[in-house]
Each structure stands twice: as structure tokens, then as C-alpha cells.
Specification:
alpha/beta; 2 domains; 40% helix; globular; binds nicotinamide-adenine-dinucleotide
């Protein structure tokens, strides 16, 4: 097996469990030195424990790899700064940041509390911005000092955010924000040798066990390929982190099992221009005529009603 991330220094946030754990292990198999970040929180963000991140570090060392644990809260600006600084201190450089940490506090909007809103927005959106901000500043300094920077940021969004899943207003708003931030960061950081992409994964983890059990999908036979296994997301993430993905930036990919698709973003659709200010009543006809020509929004699974026929 070709080790496609040999010698690269990688931070994976939320890497103690679920999808992030599998990213960390796959990076180690591909020769990367890994900072396993995790606060060890419950699904809803409560509590903290350094135990689970330490177990992933032990697993990487047992396979002959190099890893260290980091217990920083990624949504804490100073904690995120320490996370980036400690990767550089421990391994001498930083090449890849995978923003994966997340929590879930699902609720219909009419019942959602301020705390449920704030905590989810904080961990996902601020928890993506803060490490990205500090890593980007590090790479800009390296670039200005004349080093050849070939760095990566891989964010984690969700179909919930880019397509819209009822019952997840807080989570979906944060994940849509992460998709938007990915596009903007790609445009800002390309000049320093940094690509920025995002994955929208689907996998069976503690975060989704309720949703997937409710879907009624049958369990795969033992030993058979398991499309819902969380380790199916890592190959794309490791590839995006590798030198071979140098020209890919600003993209969002859906990943589940062996399926990879490109999420195509918002685009300006049918247009009308009066060349003057509209009177609101004129729009009675103009807006429905525009919508008649426009493609409908996709469903929560990313497909338009007409494509689904
Ligand atoms: N599982 C899916 O199908 C699915 C679908 C779409 C998106 N995602 C996203 O994938 C990512 C991983 O989810 P998962 O299913 O593996 O969940 P998970 O709960 O198994 O893992 C998330 C990890 O993040 C850690 N974490 C939480 N808050 C943190 C913080 N402030 N700082 C550092 N670490 C923190 C947790 O302790 C946990 O180990 C999340 O961003 C999630 O929103 C997952």
C-alpha cells in the first residue's frame, strides 16, 4: 500500500470517536504524524474526558505510528491556538488540519432553547473557524518566510446543512456556515499554498445511531462491506490531505460507504432586471414567473423532486 501522507503532520479534531477516530488511524497508516484532538464530550457536548483520545494514540503507537493526544476545546479561541502551536512544537511543522469535532442538540425550532442554539453553533462553527484561523496564520508566516507550503484544511459539513433537514435548525445552520466558510477560506488561502475543502459524511456513529436505526436499513452480513461504517469516510479525507490533491480546493463532497459525490453549490439562477426600482405589487407576476423557470430546491437527500422521478 502506498503511504500517501508520509511525514505529514496532521491535526484531527474530535478524533477520539466515530468518524474522526477512523481519520486519525487512516492517516497513521499512511505515514502521517497525528495530533489526536478531543475533549471527550458526550454527544450533546456535556462532560469531558482525556481517556478516549489517549486510546486512539495508543492504537496508533501500537501500529508503529507517531501520535499525541490533545484535549483542547476547539471552540475556545485560545485552546485552538494552543492546539496548532503544540502540533508545531511536537512535530516541527503542520501540514493538515481536519476539522471534524461536533455535537448534536436536535430540536424543532419552536421548542429550541437559546443554549441548544448557542452550544451547537459554537462547537461546529466557531470550532471550525478557530483552528482554521490559527493554522492559516501559521501557514501565511511560513509562506512569507519563503517556505514551500503545501497545506490542507478539510472541514466537516453535513447534508443537514447544505440541503436542509427539519429538526436540526441549529446544527444545519452551523453546517451550512461551514460549507460557506470552506469556499471563502479556499479563496483567501490559496495564495499561501493552502487548499480548503469539506466533506459531508454519512456513517453509523453514536451521533446517528438513532436516525439510522429508524431508517430500517438491514445490518450487513459479518465480514461484508458495511456502507455505514465510519471508516469509509477516511480514504477521501486522507487523499484530500495528500500532495496529489494539490489542485482541489473550495469543494464539498458527500461521502457514504463507497459513494462519493460533489455537492454543487448555490448558483444565480433565472434573472429579471427592470433597470429601475420595482413597485412591490409588480412582483405579483414577476416572482412566480422567475420561480417557474428556476430549478426547485433539493430535498434533504440532495436530489431535486424531478431528478428523483
Ligand atoms: N455520523 C454521521 O453520519 C455524520 C453526518 C454528517 C456530519 N457528521 C459530522 O461528522 C463529524 C464527526 O461526527 P461523528 O458522527 O463521528 O460523532 P461522534 O460523536 O462519534 O464524534 C464527535 C467527537 O467530537 C468530540 N468533540 C465534541 N465537542 C468537541 C470540542 N469542543 N472540542 C474537541 N472535540 C470535541 C467528541 O468528544 C467526539 O469524540 C461531526 O462534525 C458531525 O457533525 C457526521
Amino acid at each position: 500500500m502506498a503511504a500517501i501522507c508520509d511525514g505529514r503532520v496532521v491535526i484531527v479534531t474530535g478524533a477520539a470517536r466515530g468518524i474522526g477516530r477512523e481519520h486519525a488511524l487512516e492517516f497513521a497508516r499512511h505515514g502521517a504524524r497525528v495530533v489526536v484532538n478531543d475533549v471527550g464530550a458526550e454527544v450533546d457536548g456535556s462532560g469531558s474526558s482525556t481517556g478516549p483520545a489517549g486510546e486512539v494514540v495508543e492504537a496508533i503507537r501500537a501500529m508503529g505510528g507517531e501520535a499525541v493526544a490533545d484535549g483542547s476545546d476547539v471552540s475556545d479561541f485560545e485552546g485552538a491556538r494552543r492546539l496548532v502551536a503544540s502540533a508545531v512544537e511536537r512535530f516541527g511543522d503542520l501540514h493538515v488540519l481536519v476539522n471534524n469535532a461536533g455535537i448534536l442538540r436536535d430540536r424543532m425550532l419552536v421548542n429550541m432553547t437559546e443554549e441548544e442554539w448557542d452550544s451547537v453553533i459554537r462547537v461546529h462553527l466557531r470550532g471550525t473557524f478557530a483552528p482554521l484561523r490559527h493554522a492559516a496564520a501559521y501557514w501565511r508566516e511560513r509562506h512569507k518566510a519563503g517556505h514551500d507550503v503545501d497545506a490542507r484544511i478539510i472541514n466537516t459539513t453535513s447534508s443537514s446543512g447544505i440541503y436542509g433537514n427539519p429538526g436540526q435548525g441549529n446544527y444545519g445552520a452551523a453546517k451550512a456556515g461551514i460549507a460557506g466558510l470552506t469556499v471563502i477560506a479556499a479563496r483567501e488561502l490559496g495564495r499561501y499554498g493552502v487548499t480548503v475543502n469539506a466533506v459531508a459524511p454519512a456513517a453509523l456513529t453514536r451521533m446517528t445511531e438513532g436516525l439510522i436505526a429508524a431508517s430500517g436499513r438491514p445490518e450487513p452480513e459479518p465480514g461484508a462491506f458495511a456502507p455505514a461504517a465510519p471508516d469509509n469516510i477516511a480514504p477521501l479525507v486522507v487523499w484530500l490531505a495528500s500532495p496529489g490533491a494539490r489542485d482541489v480546493t473550495g469543494r464539498v463532497f458527500n461521502v457514504r460507504g463507497g459513494m462519493i459525490s460533489v455537492a454543487e453549490g448555490w448558483r444565480a439562477g433565472p434573472m429579471v432586471d427592470k433597470g429601475a426600482r420595482w413597485a412591490p405589487h409588480e412582483l405579483d407576476e414577476v416572482v412566480p414567473a422567475l420561480l417557474e423557470k428556476a430549478r426547485p430546491n433539493v430535498r434533504p437527500d440532495g436530489v431535486t423532486p424531478e431528478d428523483a422521478k
